[in-house]
Amino acid sequence: MSADEHVLGMPADVGGAAPERWQLKAKPGPRALAEWTDILAATHLRFDVCSTERTPSIFYGAVTRRRFGDLALVDCAASPFLARSGGAFMRDAAGCEPVFGLQFVRRGVEQVRERSRELSLTPGDVILWDGELPVEIEVIEPFVKRTVIFPRERLLAVCPRLEGAATLPPLSGSAAGRLLVRYLDALALELADLDELGAVAAADAALELLRAAVSPSVPSSRSARRLAMCLAVRRYIRAHLRDATLGPRSIAHEHAMSVRALHALFEDTGESVSGLVRRERLARCHEDLLSANGGTVTEIAFRWGFRDGAHFARVFKAHFDVTPSDVRREALRSAGLPRERKPVL
User: Fold this and answer.
1) What's the CA gap between 231 and 213, in Å, rounded?
2) Per residue in 54-70, pLDDT tens?
3) By C-alpha distance, which of 161, 157, 158, 164 is closest to 225?
4) How confident is the model at residue 222 (pLDDT cuts 50, 70, 90)?
5) From the centroid of its chain, how far is CA 196?
6) Are 39 and 22 within 8 A, CB to CB?
7) Count of H helices and E strands in the chain?
8) Is the model's pLDDT at 343 over the cut of 70?
9) For the chain, which has fewer Cβ within 10 Å, the N-terminal or C-terminal residue?
10) How far is residue 283 from each of residues 40, 164, 277, 278, 286, measured CA to CA in Å?
11) d(CA 47, CA 28)
């Protein structure tokens, strides 16, 4: 490997850290393919890699990975080769996290054989693949591709209907898919300057664009619709936490259902709707209490929908096992700022 060799298993950098790089240069086929197997396992999936009649005697391969939030943007270039993945069985054996991948081809030709579909990918093609499924890929011509790796649970949280899809939807003809590709290309140029919060926001935006691209093409089912509605309610709650009137009645009205139906929607989650609202509000309050410019404890409590200061102090203490005033005092001390003059909750 080159001088900037990446040590497999090394913890990934986040946010503005330098990209991770793997590179093979001028190595004979068998030796290079063995190393290429390890690189693909570290950056994509665990594959069995072998040569074809198109594989050159001197194999070349390179990967660059940029982390943002809990997603990864992976650029890959390689000589022709053949690779097979056993899907969930191979992933479980290797101890890898289950993932989806969104792949778009820059250069070259790649053939993909996966369950009921067989694709020949050329420059400009975009596909979504599921790391749980067995797949065979063959690089016909030296290729360059970009892939975004999504944790499986994360993508299913915003697009639950993918779970039961017989086939994954095509994306090359989707306007939202094309927008997502352009967004990711622009994002790759800016990732080095993003802080951690910016990187998390960028990952959320990528997930929403992917949801918009795949949802219209994925058939629905009763369980998927139920999960989708549950996730929609959660998103609504997070967006309206500042509204002091937010509660089961207003949430049910906004989603055109009865309060009883709303409670039934969450009966298997182990948490009530009111409990979810309270937990989300407490989390936002805790974040602001830790911020040097978050304001006073009372201001923070009212900002996030608590209408009674004493009640806020009680539920905060019960949830975090520390008072909000203690959290605020420690945050101000760490920032070198004076304590609040007025008594706080």
Assistant:
1) 18
2) 998 888 899 999 999 89
3) 161
4) low
5) 14
6) yes
7) 12, 9
8) no
9) N
10) 38, 33, 10, 9, 5
11) 19
Q: Hey, CA dihedral for 51, 25, 186, 198, is it positive or negative?
A: positive
Residue 106: predicted pLDDT: 92
Average pLDDT over residues 133-137: 88
H-type helices in the chain, by residue range? 29-43, 88-94, 152-158, 175-190, 196-214, 222-239, 248-254, 259-265, 273-290, 297-303, 309-320, 324-334
Q: Output b/e per residue, 285-305; b: 16+ Cβ within 10 A.
A: bbebbeeeebebbbebbbbbb
pLDDT band at 76; cut points 50, 70, 90: very high
Contact 68, 202 (CB under 8 A): yes
- 């989603």: which residue's tokens? 255
Read off the pTM.
0.59
Nearest to 165 by CA among 222, 217, 200: 217
List the domains of the chain with CATH numbers: 20-217 (2.60.120.10), 222-334 (1.10.10.60)
**Residue 82: which H helix or E strand, with range?**
strand 82-85
Per-state percent for the chain, helix, strand, coil, to nearest 5: 45, 25, 30
CB-based contacts of 263, cutoff 8 Å, min separation 6 = 248, 272, 273
Residue 251 burial class via C-beta count within 10 angstroms: exposed 0-12, middle 13-18, buried 19 and up: buried
Rg (CA), the chain: 24
- At 168 the three-state DSSP class reads coil
**What gap in Å lies between CA 144 and CA 163, rounded to an integer?**
29
Q: Which residues, 6 or more positions from 239, have their beta carbon under 8 angstroms from its beta carbon? A: none
How far is 74 from 65, CA to CA, in rounded Å? 4
Indicate the residue type of 106: R
Please give the single-letter amino acid code of residue 84: R
Which residue carries 């080159």 as its tokens? 2
HSE toward the beta carbon, residue 262, CA cutoff 13 A = 21
Spatial neighbors of 228 by CB under 8 A, at least 6 apart, are 160, 161, 220
